[in-house]
Amino acid sequence: MALPSTSAPLPRFVGRDAICVAGFALLLSSAYFIAKNTSAKLMIAGLVMIVLSDPNLLRERLPRALMAGLAAIGGFAAWTALGLLVNRAAVGPAGEALASFALLALVLLAGRRLLACCGLRFICGALLAAATLSSVLTLVLHLSAGLPFTERLMPLGRAGNPIPAAGGLCVALVAAVALLRDAPRPRSRRLVAWVAGAVLPILVVVGMTQSRGPILAAVITFAAMLLPWRATGSRLFATAMLAWGLITALIVLDPWLRSLICIDALNFCRPSARMQIWTTVVELVGQRPVFGLTPIFRFDDPVLVHAHNGLFGTAMFFGIPAMIAALVLVFAYCRHLEGIDRSLSFFCASMLIFSFGYMGSDLPNPFSFVNMHYFFLWLPIAFGLSWSPGKAADARG
């Protein structure tokens, strides 16, 4: 099932569908243009609008895979609550940690509604448009402030940090490839020109963030997207783990690699403290291997900001059993993608590979509070879990 070309007429959204699209617009604009806490609140409001736009969403029988995903989120919430009790966490921070799981359930439901309302083509186009406009405005503000191109750039939006901001922009790059890949042959010149023009400022901004982890994760993802065979099931799981392993290994080899190719310690050649951080993280995992230190744990060392690795961080926060359970669920998700629409499967699989590559250097808590990982990890998962044969036309867009 292919995505329609951008020359096809756009769907008309009326009534409750218009509310859903407005919620999606609020979600995108707050994530890509508005900073910090205000952005987080507006992103949550956008997700709520999307879910509430369909009063029958919770009345109808949800797809079995989506119900399993919601149950898994509930299971992780229960395990975290038990860990918080064992660690004697204060009520306030414990409530905030558990609220993140409620938000993830909201994301899964919003993904279901969004896919049914808008379709993948519209979603990809909207992501690309939002990221492009955000990138252009970021460049204008950066250059108007008199800053050089070599100065590390901070993109607009929720992230407040170049690394997750770059991750959020890379979502749009994957969306662009999905639009081109599934356009009818021969591809129209207008489509190719539109996508190329939209991608250019994103590439410039991602490069100027000097965020090596997301950039390398994107390169690995695009390489995987070009493979002749379909990355699903065990092959997708192996590819995702390989992406994580490659980024992690490059960080381990960072001192040696910099000694070969760098002449200073600036920009892309700046030293990384991740090996020091990971040594401490492994020690902490050994101290609390079952329930972990829970998500409320914070380092008191300015160098050790966070675990800087998705799997190491999951083991540190939630314990080794939770990390193993998470990987088992990811494998089940990869198997699930074998049986869904090919275009949707391609997009979701690509974003999973990128997410695991990204987690080789960052995102210590994949279940953390609302940020850009909602776009490259959780919303694609929601789309993949929401597909059902009866909704095939909706997924087509």
Salient structural properties:
single chain, 397 residues, 0% strand, 68% helix
List the helices and strands and how they pair.
Layout: H1 16-33, H2 36-52, H3 64-86, H4 91-144, H5 162-181, H6 189-208, H7 212-225, H8 233-252, H9 254-261, H10 274-287, H11 310-318, H12 320-336, H13 342-358, H14 373-386, H15 392-396
What does this structure look like?
By secondary structure, the protein is an all-alpha fold. The chain has one domain. 68% of the residues lie in helices and 0% in strands. It has 15 helices and no strands. The chain has helices at 16-33, 36-52, 64-86, 91-144, 162-181, 189-208, 212-225, 233-252, 254-261, 274-287, 310-318, 320-336, 342-358, 373-386, 392-396. Helix 2 (36-52) packs across helix 4 (91-144), helix 4 (91-144) crosses helix 6 and helix 4 packs across helix 14 (373-386). The model is unreliable at 1-8 (pLDDT under 50).
Strand content: under 5%
Number of H- or I-type helical stretches: 15
Q: What is the count of distinct domains?
A: 1
Q: How many angstroms separate the termini?
A: 10 Å
What is the number of strand segments? 0
Mean pLDDT: 91
Q: Using only CA atoms, what is the Rg? A: 20 Å
List the uncertain runs: 1-8
Biggest sheet, in brief?
A: none
SSE ordering: HHHHHHHHHHHHHHH
Helix content: 55-70%
Structural class of the helix and strand makeup? mainly alpha
Choose one word for the global shape. globular
Summarize the structure.
The chain is mostly helical and 397 residues long. It has helices at 16-33, 36-52, 64-86, 91-144, 162-181, 189-208, 212-225, 233-252, 254-261, 274-287, 310-318, 320-336, 342-358, 373-386, 392-396. The radius of gyration is 20 Å and the shape is globular.
